Amino acid sequence: MTSTSSTLPTPSTRTTYLSQRVVSLKPSGIRRFFDIAATMKDVISLGIGEPDFDTPPSVIEAGIQALRNGQTHYTSNAGILELRQALAAHLERLYGVSYDPQTEIIITVGGSEALYLAATALLDPGDEVIIPTPCFVSYQAQVYLAGGVPIEIPCRMEDNFDVNPQAIEAAITPRTKAILIGFPNNPTGAVATRERLLEIARLAEKHDLIVISDEIYDRLVYGGHQHVCFPSLPGMKGRSLLLGGFSKDYAMTGWRIGYACGPQHVMQGLLRVHQYTVMSAPTMSQIAALTALYDRDEAVQMMVEEYDRRRRLIVSELNRMGLPTFEPKGAFYAFPKVSVTGLDDETFAQRLLQEEHVAVVPGSAFGAGGEGFVRCSYATAYEKIEEALRRIERFLKRL
């Protein structure tokens, strides 16, 4: 009988087959708390940034009809041309910025893929990206995974969480490649003024940088404030990438449809990465998104009005309880300062969840600028917010 022992693989001495880059990546500060909450009963979540509204019925029907019509095959890599044309018209109507749907728009698998494409296509190892914080948790991670170096610039509540151009310029080095901003902001709800964005534009021109502008909450703006689309600023279309999507504005998180827009030579790079990763965004979701663009302004306005009602409730009540809370002008988050209780944000969030079954996200999950705060989403029912606020007040009285 022939022995086969010599053909068996030698046991590996590796402790892990994962790359060092992945091993050293921090877990999401959002998901950790909600994994805990999922094991508990009677939890009110003010955490996950997802609309509690269902996708509008006409949009759902468009997706269903696409399936019935057999539209279940690949689209072009960049997405259905009609959707890109409608999106180009939509952006020009709202913000006066013009993109060629043939060469300057890619439909992506949510805004997250758009960010991944931007980081992967733009960054070489060691390239630095300046990121004002607090910011969405994926920003630093996507830069890091692409081999870049995230450089955080903390923003302060005392400055209305506005970006400090002087701090940005002080952080620029010969390795700086890009500035990554997100307005309306997650987690603070800040909306950047045109004047402040013009200062960022000046720095981009002066130092030959590209600006990646995540504007996925662009339609969710309150109190008469206006969203300024960064590439619509003078001279900025050619040195910026616009990232957006349908998840927040149209309550389409599960459909996974986003987009990236930019100058043709840059978009060719993003498309190359897109081709080798996901091929194309889901066909039926693209068709549903087309319907959303054509006829859902009414639904967007309804959601904005309801978010605004919740926004006013949660901000006024948190301030009344003694938790200083910046008035959010966009998105659907309140960002109270909990360090005034003597607890750090992690301890505050953990104890609130354990003792009162209210889930919030520690501000430190969003970068250095978020330390001492927690994020409270008001994308949940008004009555649930009222009950969550009662529980928060009860918790504060015991401290």
How would you describe the overall organization of this protein?
There is one protein chain. 40% of the residues lie in helices and 13% in strands. It is built from 13 helices and 12 strands. The strands form 3 sheets. Strands 2-8-7-6-5-3-4 form a 7-stranded mixed beta sheet, sandwiched between helices. A 3-stranded antiparallel beta sheet has the order 9-12-11. Helix 8 links the parallel strand 5 (176-182) and strand 6. Residues 1-6 have low confidence and may be disordered.
Structural class, from secondary structure content? alpha/beta
Number of strands: 12
**What is the H-and-E element order?**
HHEHHEHEHEHEHEEEHHHEHEEEH
Number of helices: 13
Strand content: 5-15%
Stretches with pLDDT under 50, minimum 5 residues: 1-6
Q: What is the end-to-end distance?
A: 75 Å
Largest sheet: 7 strands, mixed
Round the Cα radius of gyration to an integer and report it. 22 Å
Q: What is the multimeric organization of the chains shown? A: single chain
Give the helix level as a range of percent. 40-55%
What characteristic shape results from the CA principal axes?
Answer: globular
Overall mean pLDDT score?
A: 93
Strand order, main sheet: write it out: 2-8-7-6-5-3-4
Quick summary of this structure?
The protein is α/β, with parallel strands linked by helices. It contains 13 helices and twelve strands.
Which short descriptors sum up this protein?
399 residues, alpha/beta, globular, 3-stranded antiparallel β-sheet
In terms of topology, how is this protein built?
Layout: H1 20-23, H2 29-37, E1 44-45, H3 57-68, H4 81-95, E2 105-108, H5 110-122, E3 128-133, H6 138-145, E4 149-154, H7 165-171, E5 176-182, H8 194-206, E6 210-214, E7 240-245, E8 258-261, H9 264-277, H10 283-295, H11 297-320, E9 333-334, H12 345-356, E10 358-359, E11 361-362, E12 374-377, H13 382-398
Parallel strand pairs: 1-10, 3-4, 3-5, 5-6, 6-7
Antiparallel strand pairs: 2-8, 7-8, 9-12, 11-12
Helix pairs in contact: 3-10, 4-10, 5-6, 5-9, 11-13
